[in-house]
Specification:
Largest sheet: 3 strands, antiparallel
Structural class: alpha+beta
Number of domains: 1
Number of helices: 2
Order of helices and strands: HEEEH
Distance between the termini: 31 Å
Number of strands: 3
Shape: elongated
């Protein structure tokens, strides 16, 4: 399926695929492990008070275009890894691919 999507993109010169053509495209997506980065809670004192902050990572890859979009989700904004979250990220990715911001 990946090879067929690449061939479709090469034949139609799609980047990104237009919304007025009927084509098939393969998207892969998944959550990755959480990343930690230093956070400063504005407490006075030495580096001891720096606590790591969690950041979720959700990746969407368009196999035909060899393009990947990563969503970084702050721990304060994350509501889980359920179907509603996945659909929201996929919807955002597909809509921005069809209607890119200028």
């Amino acid at each position: 399926m990946t090879a067929a999507c690449k061939k479709t993109c090469d034949n139609c010169q799609l980047s990104p695929p237009p919304s007025n053509k009927r084509i098939r495209m393969l998207y892969s997506f998944d959550f990755a492990q959480q990343m930690h980065f230093p956070s400063n809670p504005l407490l006075p004192g030495p580096m001891y008070f720096l606590t790591p902050r969690k950041c979720g990572l959700f990746g969407v890859s368009c196999e035909g275009l060899q393009k990947q979009v990563n969503f970084l989700i702050d721990e304060g904004m994350s509501s889980g890894k359920g179907s509603n979250e996945v659909i929201s990220y996929m919807h955002h990715d597909i809509i921005t691919a069809i209607f890119p911001q200028k």
